[in-house]
Protein backbone atom coordinates (compact mmCIF):
# COMPACT_ATOMS: atom_id res chain seq x y z
CA UNK A 1 0.00 0.00 0.00
CA UNK A 2 1.29 3.46 -0.90
CA UNK A 3 1.98 5.66 2.12
CA UNK A 4 0.69 9.07 0.99
CA UNK A 5 1.04 12.21 3.06
CA UNK A 6 0.68 15.98 2.71
CA UNK A 7 3.69 18.20 3.34
CA UNK A 8 2.94 21.27 5.49
CA UNK A 9 5.65 23.86 4.90
CA UNK A 10 6.87 26.24 7.57
CA UNK A 11 3.85 26.88 9.73
CA UNK A 12 3.54 27.83 13.39
CA UNK A 13 3.43 25.62 16.46
CA UNK A 14 -0.24 26.28 17.17
CA UNK A 15 -1.23 25.31 13.62
CA UNK A 16 0.84 22.13 13.89
CA UNK A 17 -1.08 21.18 17.04
CA UNK A 18 -4.43 21.75 15.34
CA UNK A 19 -3.56 20.09 12.04
CA UNK A 20 -1.84 17.05 13.54
CA UNK A 21 -4.90 16.37 15.69
CA UNK A 22 -7.24 16.91 12.75
CA UNK A 23 -5.42 14.64 10.30
CA UNK A 24 -3.40 12.18 12.42
CA UNK A 25 -0.71 10.30 10.52
CA UNK A 26 -1.46 12.08 7.24
CA UNK A 27 0.86 15.08 7.50
CA UNK A 28 4.57 15.84 7.48
CA UNK A 29 5.63 19.19 8.91
CA UNK A 30 8.82 21.05 8.10
CA UNK A 31 9.31 23.60 10.85
CA UNK A 32 11.88 26.34 11.26
CA UNK A 33 14.42 25.87 14.06
CA UNK A 34 13.56 29.23 15.60
CA UNK A 35 9.83 28.48 15.57
CA UNK A 36 10.27 25.21 17.42
CA UNK A 37 12.80 26.71 19.85
CA UNK A 38 10.45 29.58 20.63
CA UNK A 39 7.41 27.38 21.28
CA UNK A 40 6.13 27.72 24.83
CA UNK A 41 5.26 24.03 25.11
CA UNK A 42 6.30 20.81 23.35
CA UNK A 43 3.84 19.25 20.94
CA UNK A 44 1.00 17.55 22.79
CA UNK A 45 0.15 15.37 19.78
CA UNK A 46 2.23 13.00 17.71
CA UNK A 47 3.45 14.60 14.50
CA UNK A 48 5.98 13.76 11.80
CA UNK A 49 8.09 16.90 12.01
CA UNK A 50 11.40 17.89 10.43
CA UNK A 51 12.93 20.82 12.32
CA UNK A 52 15.29 22.64 9.96
CA UNK A 53 16.85 25.95 9.01
CA UNK A 54 14.19 27.01 6.52
CA UNK A 55 16.39 29.78 5.10
CA UNK A 56 18.47 27.08 3.38
CA UNK A 57 16.14 25.90 0.59
CA UNK A 58 18.56 23.35 -0.87
CA UNK A 59 19.21 21.71 2.48
CA UNK A 60 15.48 21.56 3.18
CA UNK A 61 14.81 19.84 -0.14
CA UNK A 62 17.61 17.32 0.43
CA UNK A 63 16.23 16.48 3.87
CA UNK A 64 12.68 16.10 2.57
CA UNK A 65 13.78 13.82 -0.28
CA UNK A 66 15.82 11.68 2.10
CA UNK A 67 12.90 11.42 4.53
CA UNK A 68 10.50 10.37 1.77
CA UNK A 69 12.94 7.74 0.51
CA UNK A 70 13.80 6.30 3.91
CA UNK A 71 10.17 6.14 5.05
CA UNK A 72 8.73 5.02 1.68
CA UNK A 73 6.37 8.02 1.63
CA UNK A 74 4.78 9.61 -1.43
CA UNK A 75 3.57 13.19 -1.20
CA UNK A 76 -0.06 13.70 -2.20
CA UNK A 77 0.12 17.47 -1.84
CA UNK A 78 1.89 20.51 -0.40
CA UNK A 79 0.19 23.20 1.67
CA UNK A 80 1.43 26.45 3.17
CA UNK A 81 -0.33 28.75 5.63
CA UNK A 82 2.32 31.47 6.06
CA UNK A 83 3.51 34.13 3.60
CA UNK A 84 7.21 33.86 4.46
CA UNK A 85 7.16 30.12 3.68
CA UNK A 86 5.46 30.33 0.26
CA UNK A 87 8.67 30.60 -1.84
CA UNK A 88 10.16 27.65 0.06
CA UNK A 89 7.00 25.61 -0.53
CA UNK A 90 7.25 26.39 -4.25
CA UNK A 91 10.90 25.36 -4.40
CA UNK A 92 10.22 22.09 -2.58
CA UNK A 93 7.21 21.40 -4.81
CA UNK A 94 9.41 21.55 -7.90
CA UNK A 95 11.94 19.19 -6.30
CA UNK A 96 9.34 16.58 -5.36
CA UNK A 97 7.17 17.11 -8.47
CA UNK A 98 3.98 18.06 -6.65
CA UNK A 99 1.61 20.83 -7.88
CA UNK A 100 1.89 24.18 -6.11
CA UNK A 101 1.92 27.83 -7.22
CA UNK A 102 5.19 28.64 -8.99
CA UNK A 103 8.23 30.16 -7.32
CA UNK A 104 7.83 33.27 -9.45
CA UNK A 105 4.21 33.69 -8.37
CA UNK A 106 5.04 33.14 -4.70
CA UNK A 107 7.87 35.68 -4.82
CA UNK A 108 5.68 38.24 -6.57
CA UNK A 109 3.07 37.90 -3.83
CA UNK A 110 5.73 38.23 -1.12
CA UNK A 111 7.29 41.35 -2.64
CA UNK A 112 4.70 44.12 -2.35
CA UNK A 113 6.57 46.39 -4.79
CA UNK A 114 6.81 43.75 -7.51
CA UNK A 115 3.17 42.82 -6.86
CA UNK A 116 2.03 46.39 -7.51
CA UNK A 117 4.29 46.72 -10.57
CA UNK A 118 2.72 43.62 -12.13
CA UNK A 119 -0.79 44.79 -11.36
CA UNK A 120 -0.17 48.23 -12.82
CA UNK A 121 1.29 46.67 -15.95
CA UNK A 122 -1.84 44.53 -16.38
CA UNK A 123 -4.33 47.27 -15.42
CA UNK A 124 -5.41 45.56 -12.22
CA UNK A 125 -7.04 48.20 -9.98
CA UNK A 126 -4.64 48.81 -7.08
CA UNK A 127 -2.79 51.54 -5.22
CA UNK A 128 0.22 53.17 -6.84
CA UNK A 129 3.44 52.36 -5.00
CA UNK A 130 7.12 53.14 -4.99
CA UNK A 131 10.19 51.70 -3.31
CA UNK A 132 11.74 53.96 -0.68
CA UNK A 133 15.52 53.91 -0.30
CA UNK A 134 16.06 57.45 0.99
CA UNK A 135 14.24 60.54 2.23
CA UNK A 136 14.64 61.96 -1.27
CA UNK A 137 12.28 59.25 -2.54
CA UNK A 138 9.76 60.45 0.03
CA UNK A 139 10.12 64.05 -1.11
CA UNK A 140 9.65 63.00 -4.73
CA UNK A 141 6.45 61.12 -3.87
CA UNK A 142 4.76 63.93 -1.96
CA UNK A 143 5.81 66.58 -4.45
CA UNK A 144 4.26 64.57 -7.26
CA UNK A 145 0.96 63.73 -5.54
CA UNK A 146 0.69 65.60 -2.21
CA UNK A 147 -1.72 62.87 -1.05
CA UNK A 148 -1.59 60.72 2.10
CA UNK A 149 0.35 57.47 1.79
CA UNK A 150 0.81 54.19 3.64
CA UNK A 151 4.34 53.17 4.57
CA UNK A 152 5.16 49.55 5.32
CA UNK A 153 7.94 46.94 5.06
CA UNK A 154 8.28 45.34 1.65
CA UNK A 155 7.95 41.79 2.97
CA UNK A 156 5.75 42.14 6.03
CA UNK A 157 2.45 40.51 6.87
CA UNK A 158 -0.54 41.93 8.70
CA UNK A 159 -0.39 45.35 10.32
CA UNK A 160 3.09 45.18 11.84
CA UNK A 161 5.08 48.37 11.10
CA UNK A 162 2.33 49.78 8.87
CA UNK A 163 1.75 53.53 9.18
CA UNK A 164 -0.43 56.20 7.60
CA UNK A 165 1.63 59.23 6.58
CA UNK A 166 -0.39 62.40 6.08
CA UNK A 167 2.52 64.45 4.77
CA UNK A 168 6.21 64.47 3.89
CA UNK A 169 7.44 65.34 7.40
CA UNK A 170 5.53 62.48 9.04
CA UNK A 171 6.73 60.11 6.32
CA UNK A 172 10.38 61.06 6.89
CA UNK A 173 10.13 60.32 10.62
CA UNK A 174 8.24 57.08 9.95
CA UNK A 175 10.88 55.98 7.45
CA UNK A 176 13.57 56.27 10.12
CA UNK A 177 11.44 54.40 12.65
CA UNK A 178 10.65 51.47 10.35
CA UNK A 179 14.28 51.26 9.18
CA UNK A 180 15.55 50.98 12.75
CA UNK A 181 12.91 48.42 13.71
CA UNK A 182 13.71 46.24 10.69
CA UNK A 183 17.44 46.25 11.45
CA UNK A 184 16.74 44.83 14.91
CA UNK A 185 13.85 42.55 14.01
CA UNK A 186 14.42 38.93 15.03
CA UNK A 187 12.18 37.37 12.38
CA UNK A 188 14.70 37.10 9.56
CA UNK A 189 12.46 34.83 7.50
CA UNK A 190 9.67 37.39 7.42
CA UNK A 191 11.97 40.36 6.90
CA UNK A 192 14.86 38.89 4.94
CA UNK A 193 16.82 39.89 1.87
CA UNK A 194 15.43 38.67 -1.44
CA UNK A 195 16.87 38.44 -4.93
CA UNK A 196 14.01 38.63 -7.40
CA UNK A 197 13.90 39.40 -11.10
CA UNK A 198 17.61 40.36 -11.15
CA UNK A 199 17.03 42.87 -8.36
CA UNK A 200 18.20 42.79 -4.76
CA UNK A 201 15.74 43.80 -2.06
CA UNK A 202 17.34 44.16 1.37
CA UNK A 203 15.58 43.38 4.63
CA UNK A 204 15.26 47.13 5.29
CA UNK A 205 13.33 47.66 2.03
CA UNK A 206 10.30 49.89 2.57
CA UNK A 207 7.24 50.60 0.44
CA UNK A 208 5.27 53.82 0.16
CA UNK A 209 1.89 53.43 -1.49
CA UNK A 210 -1.07 55.65 -2.19
CA UNK A 211 -3.63 55.67 0.61
CA UNK A 212 -6.97 54.38 -0.67
CA UNK A 213 -10.04 55.54 1.28
CA UNK A 214 -13.14 53.42 1.67
CA UNK A 215 -14.28 50.26 3.42
CA UNK A 216 -11.79 47.40 3.63
CA UNK A 217 -12.73 43.80 2.87
CA UNK A 218 -11.02 40.44 2.69
CA UNK A 219 -11.97 37.20 1.01
CA UNK A 220 -10.77 33.67 0.41
CA UNK A 221 -11.32 32.35 -3.08
CA UNK A 222 -10.63 29.34 -5.26
CA UNK A 223 -8.98 29.69 -8.66
CA UNK A 224 -9.26 26.48 -10.67
CA UNK A 225 -9.66 25.70 -14.36
CA UNK A 226 -9.98 29.36 -15.24
CA UNK A 227 -12.86 29.99 -12.85
CA UNK A 228 -13.06 31.86 -9.54
CA UNK A 229 -15.31 30.89 -6.63
CA UNK A 230 -15.45 33.26 -3.67
CA UNK A 231 -15.59 31.25 -0.43
CA UNK A 232 -16.27 34.09 1.95
CA UNK A 233 -16.13 37.86 2.10
CA UNK A 234 -15.62 39.72 5.36
CA UNK A 235 -15.69 43.39 6.19
CA UNK A 236 -12.91 44.70 8.40
CA UNK A 237 -13.38 47.16 11.22
CA UNK A 238 -10.60 49.14 12.85
CA UNK A 239 -10.60 50.79 16.27
CA UNK A 240 -9.95 54.49 16.60
CA UNK A 241 -7.38 53.94 19.35
CA UNK A 242 -5.63 51.00 17.68
CA UNK A 243 -2.56 51.43 15.49
CA UNK A 244 -3.21 52.01 11.79
CA UNK A 245 -4.00 48.86 9.81
CA UNK A 246 -5.01 46.82 12.85
CA UNK A 247 -8.28 44.94 12.41
CA UNK A 248 -10.38 45.06 15.57
CA UNK A 249 -13.34 43.05 14.27
CA UNK A 250 -14.76 41.25 11.24
CA UNK A 251 -18.30 40.93 9.93
CA UNK A 252 -19.09 37.68 8.15
CA UNK A 253 -20.86 37.48 5.84
CA UNK A 254 -20.19 41.00 4.66
CA UNK A 255 -22.77 42.79 2.60
CA UNK A 256 -21.59 44.22 -0.68
CA UNK A 257 -21.85 48.02 -0.94
CA UNK A 258 -25.02 49.33 -2.54
CA UNK A 259 -24.88 49.00 -6.31
CA UNK A 260 -21.92 46.62 -6.26
CA UNK A 261 -22.15 43.61 -8.56
CA UNK A 262 -20.63 40.48 -6.92
CA UNK A 263 -19.79 39.09 -10.38
CA UNK A 264 -17.41 41.99 -10.81
CA UNK A 265 -15.32 40.82 -7.84
CA UNK A 266 -14.80 37.40 -9.42
CA UNK A 267 -13.67 38.95 -12.68
CA UNK A 268 -11.20 41.25 -10.92
CA UNK A 269 -9.77 38.38 -8.86
CA UNK A 270 -9.38 36.18 -11.92
CA UNK A 271 -7.50 38.94 -13.74
CA UNK A 272 -5.34 39.82 -10.72
CA UNK A 273 -4.38 36.21 -9.96
CA UNK A 274 -3.73 35.45 -13.61
CA UNK A 275 -1.39 38.43 -13.93
CA UNK A 276 0.72 36.87 -11.15
CA UNK A 277 0.95 33.56 -12.98
CA UNK A 278 -1.47 31.74 -10.69
CA UNK A 279 -3.50 29.04 -12.45
CA UNK A 280 -4.75 26.94 -9.52
CA UNK A 281 -4.78 28.30 -6.01
CA UNK A 282 -6.70 28.59 -2.78
CA UNK A 283 -5.95 32.23 -2.08
CA UNK A 284 -6.87 35.27 -0.05
CA UNK A 285 -7.06 38.92 -1.03
CA UNK A 286 -7.49 42.22 0.80
CA UNK A 287 -9.16 45.10 -1.01
CA UNK A 288 -11.06 48.35 -0.60
CA UNK A 289 -14.23 49.63 -2.23
CA UNK A 290 -14.74 53.38 -2.48
CA UNK A 291 -17.41 55.15 -4.52
CA UNK A 292 -18.18 51.88 -6.28
CA UNK A 293 -14.56 51.29 -7.32
CA UNK A 294 -12.43 48.38 -6.12
CA UNK A 295 -8.73 48.63 -5.31
CA UNK A 296 -6.72 45.51 -4.43
CA UNK A 297 -4.22 45.75 -1.58
CA UNK A 298 -2.61 42.31 -1.40
CA UNK A 299 -3.14 38.79 -2.74
CA UNK A 300 -1.41 35.60 -1.70
CA UNK A 301 -1.93 31.86 -2.45
CA UNK A 302 -2.89 30.76 1.06
CA UNK A 303 -6.03 30.94 3.17
CA UNK A 304 -6.73 33.91 5.43
CA UNK A 305 -5.33 33.62 8.94
CA UNK A 306 -5.96 35.40 12.23
CA UNK A 307 -9.40 34.41 13.59
CA UNK A 308 -10.90 33.89 10.13
CA UNK A 309 -10.80 30.04 9.98
CA UNK A 310 -12.78 29.60 13.23
CA UNK A 311 -15.05 32.51 12.29
CA UNK A 312 -15.89 30.89 8.95
CA UNK A 313 -16.45 27.54 10.67
CA UNK A 314 -18.84 29.15 13.14
CA UNK A 315 -20.75 30.96 10.41
CA UNK A 316 -21.26 28.16 7.91
CA UNK A 317 -19.49 25.00 9.10
CA UNK A 318 -16.68 25.11 6.51
CA UNK A 319 -13.35 23.97 7.96
CA UNK A 320 -10.81 26.13 6.11
CA UNK A 321 -7.79 24.21 7.38
CA UNK A 322 -9.27 20.94 6.13
CA UNK A 323 -10.26 22.67 2.90
CA UNK A 324 -6.64 23.70 2.37
CA UNK A 325 -5.49 20.10 2.89
CA UNK A 326 -8.14 18.78 0.50
CA UNK A 327 -7.29 21.38 -2.12
CA UNK A 328 -3.61 20.44 -1.91
CA UNK A 329 -4.56 16.87 -2.82
CA UNK A 330 -6.58 18.03 -5.82
CA UNK A 331 -9.96 17.44 -4.23
CA UNK A 332 -13.01 19.60 -4.89
CA UNK A 333 -14.06 21.89 -2.05
CA UNK A 334 -17.77 22.11 -1.41
CA UNK A 335 -18.43 25.77 -0.68
CA UNK A 336 -21.58 26.36 1.42
CA UNK A 337 -23.65 29.49 1.09
CA UNK A 338 -22.52 32.14 3.55
Q: Can you walk me through this structure?
A:
This protein has 338 residues and is an alpha+beta fold. It has 11 helices and 15 strands. Strand 1, helix 1 (13-22) and strand 2 (27-32) form a beta-alpha-beta unit. The radius of gyration is 20 Å and the shape is globular.
What would the keywords be for this entry?
alpha+beta; 3 domains; four-stranded parallel β-sheet; Dna Ligase, domain 1
As laid out across the biggest beta sheet, the strand order is 13-12-11-14-15
Q: CATH topology of the largest domain, what is it called? A: D-amino Acid Aminotransferase, Chain A, domain 1
How much of the polypeptide forms β-strand, as a percent range?
25-35%
Structural class: alpha+beta
Quick rundown:
The protein has 338 residues and is an alpha+beta fold. It contains 11 helices and 15 strands. The protein has a 5-stranded antiparallel β-sheet with strand order 13-12-11-14-15. Strands 3-2-1-4 form a 4-stranded parallel β-sheet, sandwiched between helices.
Amino acid sequence: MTNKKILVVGTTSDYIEILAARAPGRLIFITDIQERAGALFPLSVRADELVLDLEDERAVLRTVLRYLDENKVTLSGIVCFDCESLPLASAVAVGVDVPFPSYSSAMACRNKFVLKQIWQKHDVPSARARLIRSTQDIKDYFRSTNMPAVMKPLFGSGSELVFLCENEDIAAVTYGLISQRLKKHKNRRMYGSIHHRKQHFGRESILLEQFIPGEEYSCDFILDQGEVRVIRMVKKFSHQKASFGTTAAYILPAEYPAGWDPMRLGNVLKHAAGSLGLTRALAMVDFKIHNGEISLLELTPRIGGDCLPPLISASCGLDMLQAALDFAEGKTIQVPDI
